[in-house]
Amino acid sequence: MDLSKKIIIKPTPAVFIRNLIIIEFVWAVAASLVSLQFSPTELYNDFQLARFGPFNIILTIVITTFQIMIIVLAFLSWYTDTYEIDRQSIVRRRGGLFGMSEIAQTQTLTEVEVSQSKLGETFNYGRLTLIKETSAEKGTLNNIPNPRHYAALIKTLLDPQQLDIQAAMQKSIPDHIETGEGQHCEFKASFAWDYRLQRINKDLHKAVMKNIVGFMNTTGGILLLGVGDDGAIVGLEQEFQSQGKPNADGFEINFNTAFRNMIGPEYRPYVSLEFEQIEGKTICRVVVLPTPEPVYLTHKNQEEFYIRTGNASQPLTISQAVTYVQTHFKG
Q1: Residue 156: closest CA among 18, 294, 299
Q2: Helix, strand or coil, per DSSP, at residue 58
């Protein structure tokens, strides 16, 4: 992908219909007010329009002309309205007197939120709210078709700062927990222990591995196993006791097996495991380095692609993944 090219978004065609209805309504009200002041037949006679044809024909021509003008005006107000997005900026071009206006610098964004009305959900369009890192001010992109697709596409253009591995290694686990989940940190209560079923559940491997893949494909990160989503320290002891080798070595063996099957052994050097006792409970700190090439998660014979956005690992569609790979892995 040529990074100089822009993502072009036109508002949903529903805007054209809305504008047409509004202009038609204004035209109807204006015509009614004019008719109260001036009689069409009097205007016909005063301007001596009889030489151009009968009254009914002239009236039809006038109304038809105005209707055509209304349709053209509604169409142009939709057609000339365009959002242009690249790695530097997000701008809106509206043509005519409105010209161009910058909505945001792309690399100042931290999040893109999607909101839809009931009508928007029905016709699949909505608003994108651009959250900026240095300002309380928010930019908006209105009436965007397929808004979740474009929100994810904008996120692929962002360049979050790489994780400072040295600083992350020196930071204590309680400090990580106090800071909370974010771009570079994720908590998981276990690797395979299902607290609801009170047994090992290997389906839980995916929740851990997708976050590792997301960190690899973005900027690296820290995954704390044995810590609940709310920051509560639950430990890995129950999981240890349920495996063949009831200790950290047995845990790492199971981790390596799942990693090999779901991500690939060639990427294992980018991940390190450390075990530490906190409040008498074992926590595993998984340190993940960013990779120089895209990494995919294989689950139930399906390949999936994840990136880290904020405090979550976001799956991308095929087209979104292609765009992200071409822009993020530039080497």
Answers
A1: 294
A2: helix
Q: Please check whether the domain covering 165-328 is classified as CATH 3.30.70.20.
A: no
Beta-sheet strand order (sheet of 302-309): 297-299, 302-309, 312-316
Q: Position of tokens 């209805």?
A: 21
How far is it, in rounded angstroms, from Cα 307 to Cα 212?
A: 9
pLDDT digits (tens, 9 = 90+) for 43-67: 666 666 666 667 677 778 878 888 8
> Across the strands, what pairs with 227?
233
* Rounded percentage of the chain residues whose pLDDT exceeds 70: 91
Two tokens, residue 201: 């559940």
- CA 198 and chain centroid, separation: 35
Domain boundaries of the chain, sorted by first residue: 9-79, 81-155, 165-328
Model pLDDT for residues 251-262, shown as the tens digit of each residue: 999 999 999 999
Residues 6+ apart with CB under 8 A from 227: 173, 177, 187, 188, 189, 233, 234, 283
CA dist 55 and 44 (Å) reads: 7
Answering whether pTM is above 0.70, one says no
Strands 185-188, 221-225: pairing is: parallel
Q: What is the mean pLDDT of the chain?
A: 87
